[in-house]
Design goal:
By secondary structure, the protein is mainly beta. It contains six helices and 51 strands. Strands 12, 20, 21, 22, 23, 24, 25, 26 and 27 form a nine-stranded mixed sheet that branches. The chain has a seven-stranded antiparallel sheet with strand order 17-16-13-14-15-19-18. Strands 1, 3, 4, 6, 7 and 10 form a six-stranded mixed sheet that branches. β21 and β22 form a beta hairpin. The two termini are 48 Å apart.
Length: 769
Amino acid sequence: MMKYLIVIFFCLIGVSAFEQQGDGGTPMGINQTQKMGLDIPIVYFGIPNIAALRAEDKINDSLNIGPWRFGYNYETDLNCFDNGIWINRKDGGKTWLLQIEAKKAKTINLTFSNSNIPKGNELYIYNPDKTFILGKFTQKHLYKGELGAELVLGHSIIVEYDVAPENYNNIGNIEISRVTYGYRTEKEMHERVFGSSEVCEMNVNCPDGAPYVQQRNSAVMLVVGSSGFCSGALINNSNYDGKPYVLTANHCTAMQHNYASWIFRFKWQAPGCTNPSTTPPFESISGAVLRAKRTPSDFCLVEIAGGLTNGTVPQNCSPYFAGWNRSNTPPPSTYCIHHPKGDITKISFDDDPPVISQGMGSTETNSTWKVTWDRNTATEIGSSGSPLFNNIGQIIGQLWGGSSDCNNTGNGGHDYYGRIHNSWNPIGSDSTNQLEYWLDPNNSGTASTTGYDPYNIMVNYNAAVINVYGFRKNDCRSSFSPAVVIQNRGNQTLTTLTINYTYNGQTNQTYYWTGSLTTYQSDTVLLPSILNIDGNNSIQIAISNPNGQPDEMTSNDNFNVSYVSAPSGVKLAFTFFMGCYPDENSWEILDENNNVVYSGVGSTGGGNSNYYKKDTFCLPAGCYRLVIKDSYGDGVHSSVYTDCSYDGSMTLISVSNNDTLAALPVSQADFKYEKQYSFCIGDYDSVIYYSDVKGLKVYPNPNNGAFTVVSDAPGEKQVLLYSVIGQKVLDFKTDYMKFKISSKKLAAGVYHLILLTNKKKLVRKIVVK
């Protein structure tokens, strides 16, 4: 399904949450009216048919595919000439005030049109007790006379417009074209937005997201006409000039084409890995103009037009313009930064290459990247338009839609991203439906750009390390050469650089780079080969001495990564023929703790072909479960259909001894929705039973070699203990359901305890310290 727009509300827990829409300031008009004994005129709005609205909401919310609506829009034409009250101030200026009441409303928000604020004049919006203030707004916050304002909690708000003394006869104009009556409760809105995404969603500032601070700062939440939202990202152009372009999805424009009232929110994120108890603050600016959009690759490029500073996003938003890459070649891995269900910023990872596909009903061949998320991450409704980054932090597409959510992580759920490659300069396109015209304005022909920080202090010597890659998930290799991406962010051409690297805490090693990089150019440096070890691995990079000089900006000189390898594990070969409908198929391998250690999905079919997936990977010795799935419910039995001549099959083989661990013959192609296989690798004997870990307890764990075992299996059972590399340590039989094991021969490390009965197999991982 499409990651549809959903309407949003941000719970106003405290003043700080929205205090930065506008430039800050203090409205004084309400104090003057009180001192003068004047009443502010009130415009009343009645209660809409909430019962009918909620009936519609119940249907839409249950489908989880449409806008999440929090309010009802009243179209109006309130203005500073026909409504409200003007008062003259002692300083020679004057103030216009208008109060808006919406009976029993939970929130009120406003949209302004046809407005003009001469220099020196200021606009504010606040609640009557002035505990929540939006503003000050000036002409720079308007685009084409429009402004979309944040929501104010309560049923009453005041609009104040202050005219400077020098503008006494130059009032300008303030016009309110829409009043939105918020009818859902604060609790409903809070649960739907802040903290509303599923538990699998990873906060962007978790350890996995630590290397991607710059890309995090490029991500924005895009509020459409104060009624719906999508995700998006600031994107760089080849001039590196901070032009405030935002890339999002074309289908995000379906609900609201009035770009002038769009709002862009920055830095709405948890400070750490866990959700804070209340909604964190963020920065926002509003107003945009459409530059280009296109349906077959579902992209939309807008340029922020309001609230800018020197033509770019203000520094308080911490903007970063992400680089892009229009290559047709899949990168080795990808990640996405997004706002699922309108929640704070999250990050998702696909540790495998994306698949070139034709998804989401696109009319164009190979228009999408297909990704399947790893690390128990996903996207959800509301993530639409979010950027897909390649392994070196360049945008390669934007989210169109898919089946991914927290209920099917590693379980066949996948997403489709419109590809920048297809959006770049399609045949027959012009400036209104291509990216090249805007992102490469001087026709340089460049295939990619790196990112740009408009507030980077330009010094002579500033080298940065952007990324480190080359490692793989469940890497079989005993060694590999890390690739380090460096960038020159200084004024002087970079010709020499020292790269220090440490691998798994070993002795610091040094690599001396030479080359020629002008400002913002980058290079990928292959370091000498390093050894993998079983389990967790880490690489630490530190650069220094650009051109033999001290680096004048050291904050971007370090980069650390970690990954899991299994060079002494078992190499497996997986082959899955999926017939003519591979987009219905997926697979995963789970360890004895039900952690997904390998997964994948089929690509888009579309012809009379037997599509297949082949891969090799390594796993540590242990017991696992392979699950193959079909979303349609007919397995890979596709020859039953008139447009296909093929049925599928599958094999999983241990490469070292050519043993078949799992197999699906063609005769069993119709496995319906799912088929499971259990297998063990290393020195374990293959078994046909599912590894039930719920019936086996071990304590203490970790331990010093002495521990108690409790099982739910009566009668005689065989007890086996294996080291992590598959060496058998213990082998005996017992009919006790509770017994103790104590062995001084157990060295520190990880072991697998297995209990075998004639009905089932029980497995537990044990750690000896």
